[in-house]
Specification:
Blueprint lengths: L3 E4 L7 E14 L2 E5 L5 E3 L5 E3 L4 E4 L2 E14 L14 E2 L14 E2 L3 E8 L1 H4 L10 E12 L3 E2 L9 E8 L2 E6 L7 E7 L10 E4 L2 E3 L2 E6 L3 E9 L1
Antiparallel strand pairs: 1-2, 2-7, 3-6, 3-7, 4-5, 4-7, 8-9, 9-11, 10-11, 11-19, 12-18, 13-19, 14-15, 14-18, 16-17
The structure holds fe (ii) ion.
Length: about 230
């Protein structure tokens, strides 16, 4: 059966969020569409185009022509969106003892989507042909932070990650050290944009990340895409 849809766990009165699988000719009125899979997604009707693996676009009356799995996300009500902590989103400081006590970064529930097979070196763009495919569990969640929030410089993840901007404007930034003054790359994140993965594979189920952070320029919602070995 094609076009199987369900709400993602973080969908609520403020945020439209759906998973759609085995997609064929699915029209999208106005939302960010994320290709949450290792194969290309096709969009368009008369003039089809490719959205590469783990990338995204903003469709406005457009069509997903074909995709394995896609997430469709839009903030439908920005009024009091920042009250997400009263709707079950958690302050990250509750989970991480060393997280700065004054940083307003909040995480939604996480939705476990299922498994997929990919070569981690292909995910990180370190090679183009899959030579060592392995199975990962795909998990999605949203983040929220108000404008001018430094979402903490870190370099440790037990998963492969990338992010998509859903609402507002932010940046993914890289640093030489855990020190904002040592920035060496600034990736601007407008709505609908997914940054390229930051990590490099070092060995089986091991990868390194540069010191990095998300910085919210305005009130922002962004999607985390995590591949867990
Ligand atoms: Fe990260």
């Amino acid at each position: 059966m094609t076009n199987r849809t369900r709400d993602l766990s973080f969908a609520d009165d403020f945020i439209f969020a759906k998973l759609i699988e085995d997609v064929v000719d699915y029209d999208v009125e106005d939302a960010v569409v994320i290709n949450i899979g290792p194969s290309p997604m096709l969009t368009g009707d008369k003039h089809p185009a490719v959205v590469p693996a783990w990338k995204s676009t903003w469709l406005k009356g457009g069509r997903i022509k074909s995709a394995g799995r896609a997430a469709i996300v839009k903030v439908t009500n920005p009024v009091n969106l920042g009250g997400c902590m009263f709707r079950g989103w958690e302050w990250l400081g509750n989970r991480i003892k060393s997280f700065p006590r004054d940083t307003p970064l909040f995480i939604s529930s996480q939705d476990e989507i299922g498994t997929l097979t990919t070569d981690p070196y292909v995910f990180t763009n370190e090679r183009s042909t899959p030579l060592a495919p392995q199975t990962f569990t795909l998990k999605l969640n949203l983040w929220w932070a108000p404008g001018d929030t430094d979402c903490f410089i870190h370099n440790d993840h037990r998963f492969l990650e990338t992010h998509t901007q859903i609402h507002g404007r932010g940046r993914m930034q890289k640093f030489e050290h855990r020190d904002a003054s040592t920035i060496y790359e600034d990736v601007l994140m407008p709505i609908g944009y997914s940054h390229d993965p930051f990590c490099r594979v070092t060995q089986k189920n091991e990868w390194t990340y540069p010191w990095h952070r998300y910085y919210a320029d305005t009130d922002s919602v962004w999607l985390a895409i995590e591949l867990h070995p």
